[in-house]
Amino acid sequence: MQTAVNPIADRISTISVSSTMKVSADAEKLRAEGVDVVDFGAGEPDFPTPDNIKQAAIRALGANFTKYTAAGGTAELKKAVCERHAADFGTSYKPSECLITVGGKHAIFNLTQALINPGDEVVIPVPYWVTYKDVVNYAGGKCVFVDTDESAGFTLTAAMIEPHLTDRTRMVIINSPSNPSGAVIDRGEFEKIFKLTSQRGIYLMTDECYCKFVYNGEPYSIASMPGAKETVLVAGSLSKTYAMTGWRIGFGLVPSSIVGAMTKLQSHSTSNPTSISQKAAVEALRGPQDSVPVMLAEYRKRRDFVVARLNAIPGVKCAEPQGAFYAYPNMGVVVGKNGISSSLVLAERLLAESHVAVVPGEAFGTGQHVRISYATSMTELERGLDRIHRFVVKNA
Ligand SMILES: Cc1ncc(COP(=O)(O)O)c(C=O)c1O
């Protein structure tokens, strides 16, 4: 039998393996060998899905709500998404401007594939969430990376973005609070970025995955700006807000013509998000919201502990995250020492020698950091930070 000459299509070489998923797989392998691994890699809440949401799924099963739904999601869930966003942020989206997707990642994938032409430039602040770069590359777009100010907690300003806007710029991607840095964009700066992009007809994609997990001040959405609907594209997710990572429900709030394009793409790939999950999502959005502040209070406690412990390690500097549940310490004190040539090697050595899983900064566009997820118990945080402390002291 003849083997194919080029067995894999060229476009697959434009994307890389998700490093966060690779870390989890490597840690899992060690654990299967019986090694006591402390896992700071996983980007998901350690809380269970609230019971009212689980009960809604059980009711959906009982009622045989187990068939195809409309490819872009049920009318009921679209309405619930619009109503929640309106109640939280004062927006006025209609169900025709909403698409339900298989997780927030799917909304981002569909959005980029529906809007980016080969050669289009997409502005992405650094450090960035891994997926943005890959989905832009997959669409044939060109990533234009913009540095942020680490000394000021990785803040992003409109002045940092402006010089990178050209007549080829199609989209700017903002993620506030940020994965991996936890940075939250100052509202005034976000509004300036909105003005910069809307005046030029550039799409502003706002990834609101962590929008409810903000430690200072009230959560806000740039989509609440007057006139935002034409160019602001909201990519949302229920995964972190309601501890529903495995249920796979996300959404887009975008102009209805873009909903049409995304739905067309979705209808030929996943079709509808799981019917049962959609019923659970309606309950998440319409039911009691009190699990969210409970999680936020716990994350705040852990953040304070993690940042203090990291900054107590000689030479390690960690900016204080203002949201989400990640710390992004600068480990420059060991990168370049003892054969640790990069943060990738650092992450490998931390896992192999100290049995702590972290995600290397290379995955997010910086070379001296690692990402620590503190969506894990205080006991695990204590154990893992002790190990990192000892590793750094030994190798610095
Ligand atoms: C910044 C950011 N956006 C979007 C997502 C997508 O989440 P999901 O596809 O699980 O809803 C994640 C998940 O880790 C994320 O960190």
Overview of the structural elements:
The structure is a single chain. This protein is α/β, with parallel strands linked by helices and 396 residues long. Helices cover 39% and strands 13% of the residues. It contains twelve helices and twelve strands. It has a seven-stranded mixed beta sheet, sandwiched between helices. Helix 4 runs parallel beside helix 5, helix 4 packs across helix 8 and helix 10 runs parallel beside helix 12. The chain is globular, with a radius of gyration of 21 Å. The protein starts with 18 loop residues before the first helix and ends with a helix. The relative contact order is 0.17. The mean pLDDT is 95. Pyridoxal-5'-phosphate binds next to helix 4.
Beta-strand content bin: 5-15%
Query: Any idea what the shape is?
Result: globular
Strand order of the largest sheet: 2-8-7-6-5-3-4
Which residues form runs of ≥5 with pLDDT under 50?
A: none
How helical, in percent, are the residues? 25-40%
Beta strands, count:
12
Radius of gyration of CA atoms, rounded to a whole number? 21 Å
Number of helices: 12
State the end-to-end CA separation. Answer: 55 Å
Ions, cofactors and other ligands present here are: pyridoxal-5'-phosphate
- Major β-sheet annotation: 7 strands, mixed
Kindly report the average pLDDT value. Answer: 95
Order of SSEs: HEHHEHEHEHEHEEEHHHEHEEEH
Structural class, from secondary structure content?
alpha/beta
